[in-house]
Protein 1
Amino acid sequence: MKKSLVFVTFIVLMLASLTSLASYCAIERPDVRSYIDQLVTKYSFDRKKLEQLFCTVSFNEEVISRIQKPAEAKPWYQYYELFITPDRINKGVEYWNKNEKNLTLAEKRYGVPASIIVAIIGVETKYGQNKGNFPVFNTLATLAFNDGRRASYFRSELTQYLLLARENNFQPLTLKGSYAGAVGLPQFMPSSYRSYAVDFENKGRADLFNDDADAIGSVANYLNKHGWKTGEPVALAAVIENDECLPPCDKKFKPHLTQEDLEKYDISTPVPLGNRKASFIQLENKDDCEYWLGLQNFYVISTYNSSDLYVMAVNVLAQKIREKRNS
């Protein structure tokens, strides 16, 4: 009886906490008021308009739940099945054919292969089919003031979003995106939108929500600015002679292992590493692991999404789309 009472009490308290988060008026919170003060002082925003905006905020529990359990938390074999599908490959070929002119131009201008550009847009939004249904302002506000681990990051992105909206005459409450606040065909965070979006056809403004040309050019520009090496692969398969003595996996993916290091660990590759450096990647399959060496371009894609699963999905999807298109 006592155990039942304790359980019921726990459930009631849990539901109450969820309800209080959803119903709590954001403008009443000291941290929100302090944030508004900063926007007014530093960026000359209108205080009254900001207060009106924040009065609309309803902190979203689903957003917090989704950000804590992203697809990138899955093992590789499950993540692979989400993104490397016949439908996504076929639609990638269609997207490439439809946008061949701009993809060819982007590859020439920025040095990034068309297949990689297509694959990123394919993984992010399935070529624009799923750009997200979460109100961006509410989503970023939820994460900025309720995700303790990365609150400062999301506050910065919220600021960037408000600046982006002001610069482009967007209505902040109308735009929708992902559960992390990413927007448009390539799912740029607001800071990336402001820094790397390009008006690829010189129409007067970069539009990543509806314009394929701008999305294509912006993805290529982003990767180029982050150090893409033209003509270099993303990763090399690693053949392991002794899996009891492996190099550590660096989750920042900054290339650091040399050819000499690989020889010490008895690791071989299809082609010699040469003067290049690599990071060591271990991916979990159902019954074993597969091993890769991430090169500079692996690191560059990881700045777009800091998951080795994401980078490998982009790499594999790009290869399969290219092979399908050339077959």
Note: Strands lie at 134-135, 176-177, 235-237, 239-240, 267-268, 279-284, 289-294.
Protein 2
Amino acid sequence: MRLGIFLNFEHGGEASREAFRAHIDLAVKAEACGVDELWVSEHHFSAFSQSGGIFPILAHLAARTDKVRLGTAAVLTPLHDPIRAAEDLATIDLLSDGRLNLGLARGGPFPWQYKHFHIVPEDAPAQAREATHLLLALLTQQEVNFAGRWYQAKGVTTWPRPQQKSLPVFLASADKETVAEAARRGFHLMAGHAWSVASMRDLLVYYRGIAAKAPELVVLRNVCVAETDARAEARARPALARFIEGMRALPPGTASAGSVDQALRHALVGSPETCRRKLAELAESVPIASLVIKFACIDPMHKIETVDRFCAEILPRAIGEPAPA
């Protein structure tokens, strides 16, 4: 099982420059602790989660890191011109020396985003699939011809070309038509921090009904580790409450972020012993290729403690692997 960090670029009241620096510093420290992957979100029109510029963020991370893989969690395909996105993604793959993981999603329901990116909400699922088809064709082929409802290309080759001959593709969606497309094309799946074990199992069963080979499953979870369960929960509750309030501050029509108690239900929060037990139970229920930590703590030192303990004490012992050096 690989270990990843989710970078949502959440702002807790500090200036944007300081918040970005803090997140980048955290990413660099996480790589030094032994983390395998960094995943960056894409959000727009949010003072709380300022990650609308996902491509420049990833380019900066490519320069600040050496080995860790860099993932998009996820590129919201209807909001991008596929030709420009193909150019940016190939550039990031080259700048990172072939370390890009490509996560794709529709994004939503975010009516405010759709409105200002000139997308009809009812068309978003179909437009996302069409954008994904053209984007992946441009990343894998030359002289691309494409005639769709929203996008067209005639003999188009984008440059530069990606360094990886086959970019790992992960689709973040509970939509069965999207999962079916992932199965037909051999793409992998991403599950959000609020997804239940039952929902992940259902999608995996559906996927395996179409494809002979199971996908890699990337699972995002709220995580906080402390000496005791009580101390971990005391750290987690303010962080989860801040996230929920930050999401509620988004324009009307945005999906509900739920409650703190609901978030804790699927979280890995507790002492090292408790987190090992919860992770082992989760890994027995669904085949996790990569566990991605969404920090359920505010203090940067608590975040580093969580990463360090997951690398050294929790992940290896929960799944029976040797701890990293």
Note: The chain has a mean pLDDT of 93.
